[in-house]
Amino acid sequence: MTVEPRLDIIGAALGDPSRSRILCEMMDGRAFTNKELASAAKVSPQTASAHLKQLESAGLTASVRSGRHVYHRIAGADVAEVLEGLASLSPTDHLKRPGKAATDTQRARSCYNHIAGTLGVLMTERLVALDVLSLRGEAITTGARYQAFLTDIGVEAPPARSGKPPVKLCLDWTERKPHLSGPLGTAILQKALAAQWLERRTGSRALSITDGGYDAFDSVFGLSRDAIKGVSTV
């Protein structure tokens, strides 16, 4: 008997637009109630419940009870990384039409537990340029200024877990370039939220960049407001 991975189960779970919308809603790393996900997918709570059962059976989501409510979330960072990778294979023609301004979701959004979109990609490129990170081909490691950078922004070194590297790359589905993930990516997002550089939105993965955030990304990463917004200075 041939032993093969059951990709058909994953494919069936992903092969419905409503389930895709539910997964996209969860991709900001938070947990949601059935009612919230039903609203996001524009289906009834009963239909959302059936979709969630299939997603959980496929290992893509997990649920946890808290008090009277059951919350649903992406099963883990590994699943989120796979979903973002699959998204990078999907068409983006509807996002990049001539004369069409970038959406807020394209500009800055949460990708499970780190920053994605234009902001995430630009931050990653700047961290490499500043020698905080070292990029060789597709391999990324910490650079000479890694510890100094953590001290500068007031972030403790992310703890090593089971030998996992502190930095990883995740292919951004709108930019088609890598953005930073892994423990450092998580720490930067947490810092940005705690310092109110970024603010979460209700019902969206988009992250709002505050005026103080634009100032911080300029002073810390050397990213101007125009660069983040994609405005040409030529």
Features:
two-stranded antiparallel sheet, globular, alpha+beta, 11 strands, 20% strand, Arc Repressor Mutant, subunit A, three-stranded antiparallel beta sheet, 234 residues
Strand content: 15-25%
Uncertain regions spanning at least 5 consecutive residues: none
Mean pLDDT: 87
Helical segment tally?
11
- Class inferred from helices and paired strands: alpha+beta
Tell me the Rg in angstroms: 19 Å
Q: Return the domain count.
A: 2
Characterize this entry briefly.
The chain is built from eleven helices and eleven strands. With 234 residues, the protein is α+β, with helices and mostly antiparallel strands.
Description:
The radius of gyration is 19 Å and the shape is globular. The longest helix is centred in the first third of the chain and has 13 residues, at 45-57. The chain has two domains: 7-75, Arc Repressor Mutant, subunit A, CATH 1.10.10; 104-229, no CATH class. It is of the alpha+beta class. Helix 2 crosses helix 3 (34-41). The strands form five sheets. A three-stranded antiparallel beta sheet has the order 1-3-2. It has a two-stranded antiparallel sheet with strand order 4-5. Helix content is 44%, strand content 20%. The termini are far apart. It contains eleven helices and eleven strands.
